[in-house]
Amino acid sequence: MFGPVDQPDRTAAAPACEPAGASGITIHLRADRRHIQDRDVIRLRESINTKLNLEMGNTPEILDVALRVLPEEVCLVPENRAEVTTEGGLDAAGQHGHLAPYIAKLNDAGIRVSLFIAAQPAQYEAAVKLRPRVIEIPTGARGAALAHGEAYAAPRYAGGPAERPGRARARGSAATAARSG
């Protein structure tokens, strides 16, 4: 089950999680393929019976993999080759024109789309316009501040919940409160 550098074989480990009660498997296919390879994604899809969540960058090659494999869920995340793991959110406002066709293709294929966005009001507003089913918000900055005994002030809307843009939940979307980076 372990590879040359003591990395677990995900295609063997994931099916072993199902009998233990896992209701889903999440994998991250990066543009540089450092976490998992295309063939692993295909093998996982064929070997598990539970929900597959594919975290992915928004590149044409990765979109093609997702449309071939048809995971139940896709979470679009930003990628920075210098990061070990995803640390910030997508720029939904600045990348609207690039993200919209990806999200439309995934939605058309029946895949539930999630956007991992920065915790900023402008990003919330832009994300709602892109119509994902789920919005995920990174909490790494908050966690780091609290770990160092520092205060953290999350961005807030002055008018409260009634004035939040788009009222995503009212339109049938779910919103995830937080996810660590």
Question: What would you say about this model in short?
Answer:
The chain is α/β, with parallel strands linked by helices and 181 residues long.
Description:
- This protein is α/β, with parallel strands linked by helices and 181 residues long.
- The protein has one domain: Aldolase class I (TIM Barrel), CATH 3.20.20.
- Helix content is 33%, strand content 14%.
- It has helices spanning 10-17, 38-47, 60-69, 96-108, 121-130, 140-147; strands at 24-29, 51-56, 73-76, 112-116, 134-136, 174-175.
- Strands 1-2-3-4-5-6 form a 6-stranded parallel beta sheet.
- Helix 6 (140-147) links the parallel strand 5 (134-136) and strand 6.
- Helix 1 packs parallel to helix 2 (38-47).
- The longest helix has 13 residues, at 96-108.
- The two termini are 27 Å apart.
- Residues 158-181 have low confidence and may be disordered.
SSE topology:
Blueprint: H1 10-17, E1 24-29, H2 38-47, E2 51-56, H3 60-69, E3 73-76, H4 96-108, E4 112-116, H5 121-130, E5 134-136, H6 140-147, E6 174-175
Parallel strand pairs: 1-2, 2-3, 3-4, 4-5, 5-6
Helix pairs in contact: 1-2
Helix content: 25-40%
Residue-averaged pLDDT: 78
CATH class: Alpha Beta
CATH topology: TIM Barrel
List keywords for this structure.
14% strand, 6 strands, alpha/beta, globular, 181 residues, six-stranded parallel beta sheet, 6 helices, TIM Barrel, disordered C terminus
